[in-house]
Design a protein that fits this description.
Number of domains: 1
CATH superfamily: Glycogen Phosphorylase B
Mean pLDDT: 91
Largest sheet: 3 strands, parallel
CATH topology: Rossmann fold
CATH architecture: 3-Layer(aba) Sandwich
Structural class: mainly alpha
Strand content: 5-15%
Shape: globular
Length: 167
């Protein structure tokens, strides 16, 4: 779970955090990992709502490899981050986008992400659909990843190598 966008500060952030708190209380057999953005508008609210819940891990922001590891292992991603919307499909992860619009429409169109806004009822409804399932039942077909297949560097290398040999 991540949230950091300015558009979600204030009431929207409170709604998101209330939703996460309810999910954590309902799904005690799940771990919720939340790298907390250092912005004081985010940090103080996150700790107010979620500190002390035994199955919620509040961490400092993570490095890229750690973030990818968490995404790979997660059953569900809750985020307002554009970058995470692009990374999750590589692992077949469903993403609930806690925004009202996204510039990453390819993920929505391909079925990897769903815009849920910040209303608790909508976040809870969509999260329940996924969290109630076994993790293997939540995986999406990553071969349909709209952001690529992960082999761009190899393809580029091959094209350059073959191009250099031509006159």
């Amino acid at each position: 779970m991540t949230t950091h966008r300015r558009e979600n500060f204030g009431e929207r952030l409170q709604s998101i955090l209330l939703s996460v708190k309810k999910l954590a209380q309902e799904f005690l057999d799940h771990q919720f990992v939340f790298p907390v953005h250092p912005n004081p508008n985010v940090q103080s609210k996150v700790f107010d709502y979620l500190k002390g819940l035994s199955n919620v891990i509040l961490t400092s922001p993570l490095d890229y490899p750690e973030t990818i590891c968490l995404i790979k292992c997660a059953k569900l991603i809750l985020t307002d981050s554009g970058g995470i919307q692009e990374e999750a499909p590589a692992f077949g992860n469903p993403v609930l986008v806690m925004r009202y619009e996204t510039e990453r429409t390819e993920g929505i169109e391909a079925g990897f992400a769903k815009l849920v806004g910040t209303e608790p009822d909508r976040i809870l409804k969509e999260a329940h659909k996924i969290l109630r399932l076994d993790k293997d039942k939540t995986r999406l077909d990553s071969s349909r990843n709209p952001y690529g297949d992960g082999y761009a560097a190899l393809k580029i290398h091959s094209i350059i190598k073959n191009f250099k040999g031509r006159k």
